[in-house]
Write a structure and sequence with these properties.
single chain, about 450 residues, mainly alpha, Fumarase C, Chain B, domain 1, Fumarase C, Chain A, domain 2, Ribonucleotide Reductase Protein R1, domain 1, 3 domains, two-stranded antiparallel ribbon, two-stranded parallel ribbon, 19 helices, 6 strands, about 60% helix, elongated, binds arginine
């Protein structure tokens, strides 16, 4: 049953119908669609479009449909164009002609955006919860690995010693920002477009504020033309998801790298690794590679919708139907990846001695320069002097810690500094005790701050 057959002659071309139909995708909005209709019919009753018995029939019919969806007994027909048509078709089957009154004053244009926003109002908190679970694992790793030292990297070159805990937490905060962004998007989704009709608003005196309250929206849209075309909330959700995917991807990339024989910092648990069909020795980090790969897909979904929105004539255009697949896919990707990472990260075996061994003496060059600064030498000069010392050590095939006091004396005459204590990861790390630094006591504070974040929402 089509919702719009009156002016048409004959039937749609079968292939064109298939292209047009969105039921395969938007049936995920079933619950939201029926709930929206229940609340809409209450308004129609209130303003006298439905008498008591008509309202009762529609209400009971919709409740039955809701149950059918919940019990997975609802039958989708090949002729159902989308979820809105399917629900109305079924209502006809259950209560007959009265079903034809339900769509009074409403268009699928305001209906679909209402359903979609309602769906996201449920999905976003679930996603935030999954991110929170993963963040919890990062904090736990940070607590557990508090005594482990490693080099930090810039340009993938050894930089300065840090605590492994500090490194773990460096992946916590981007996710915290993802949650802030998703919370903002949630608020955007809380604006109700229902009552906007097809484009110009409805001519029936429904109380939009009451509708919004009943459906759990926080506000109502102010312009019907904007309301039926606005997909900012979907684009925002895709941006939030893509950025979250990128954050997970960056961590995944490092885990892949650190689990190589070349680094040897981490070993993957067998449960989260895969083998090769050809090479018996292989243990591959597929889970982390897929996390990295799926970030690309998330980015594609965002770019796809943004390109669709660009240059659309106002108000509703059928292009907008593409929005749901993108959002559902982005949600499904993150909801598949996050729970696996939440188990895979705690299962990683770490090799503290390998991480420590990667802190070669050159990594203390900044500490040496800082020591010279504390003895009154301007930083630029100190930087150049230590640079020279690095050069000497490289040319003589020794570590910078092996330079003799005579060599230092030649570089910086008259300076009596004991450099021997500089070459300790613990000493270097302890000096970085500014808030946000890697010193143990500030990392412990950072862990408490992170734990407090976990308690919000
Ligand atoms: N299936 C459509 C969508 O998802 C519903 C809105 C259809 N509106 C219309 N004027 N044909 O966008």
């Amino acid at each position: 049953m089509s919702l719009w057959g009156g002016r048409f002659q004959g039937t749609s071309d079968a292939d064109a119908w298939k292209l047009n139909a969105s039921i395969d995708i938007d049936q995920r909005l079933a619950k939201q669609d029926v709930t929206g209709s229940i609340v809409w019919s209450q308004q129609l009753h209130k303003i006298g479009i439905l008498n008591n018995s008509e309202y009762q029939d529609i209400h009971d019919g919709l409740i039955q449909i809701l149950n059918e969806f919940e019990q997975l007994t609802f039958q989708i027909h090949p002729s159902d164009e989308d979820i809105h048509s399917a629900v109305e078709r079924r209502l006809y089957e259950i209560i007959g002609k009265t079903a034809g009154k339900l769509h009074t004053g409403r268009s699928r244009n305001d209906q679909v955006s209402t359903d979609f926003r309602l769906w996201l109002l449920e999905a976003i908190p679930t996603l935030i919860h999954a991110i929170r679970q993963f963040q919890t694992q990062l904090v736990e790793r940070a607590e557990q690995d508090i005594d482990v030292v490693m080099p930090s990297y810039t340009h993938l070159q050894r930089a300065q010693p840090v605590l492994l805990s500090h490194w773990w937490l460096s992946f916590f905060w981007p996710l915290e920002r993802d949650i802030q962004r998703l919370t903002f998007t949630f608020k955007e989704c809380g604006i109700m477009p229902l009552g906007s009709g097809a484009a110009a608003g409805t001519s029936f005196a429904v109380d939009r504020h009451e509708l919004a309250d009943q459906l759990g929206f926080i506000g109502i849209s102010q312009n019907s033309m904007d309301a039926v075309s606005d997909r900012d909330f979907a684009a925002q959700f895709l941006f939030d998801s893509a950025l979250c995917g990128i954050h997970l991807s960056k961590l995944a990339e490092q885990v892949v790298l650190f689990s190589t024989t070349e680094f040897g910092f981490f070993a993957l648990d067998d449960a989260f690794a895969t083998g090769s069909s050809l090479m018996p020795q292989k243990k591959n980090p597929d889970v982390f590679e897929l996390t990295r790969g799926k970030a690309g897909n998330l980015l594609g979904l965002l770019t796809g919708l943004m390109s669709t929105l660009k240059g659309l004539p106002s108000t509703y255009d059928k292009d907008l139907q593409e929005d749901k697949q993108a959002v559902f896919q982005a949600y499904d990707i993150l909801m598949a990846v996050l729970p696996v990472l939440s188990k895979a990260i705690p299962s990683l075996r770490i090799f503290p001695e390998k991480l420590r061994a990667a802190i070669d003496p050159s990594v203390f060059a900044t500490d040496l320069a800082d020591l010279l600064v504390k003895a009154g030498i301007p930083f630029r000069e100190a930087h150049a002097l230590v640079g020279k010392a690095v050069k000497i050590s490289l040319e003589s095939g020794r570590g910078i810690h092996q330079l003799t006091s005579a060599e230092w004396e030649k570089l910086i005459p008259g300076l009596e500094i004991d450099f021997s204590k500089v070459f300790s990861p613990e000493v270097s790390i302890a000096t970085r005790c500014v808030v946000g630094g890697t010193a143990p006591q500030v990392v412990v504070e950072q862990i408490s701050t992170a734990r407090r974040c976990l308690q919000t929402h």
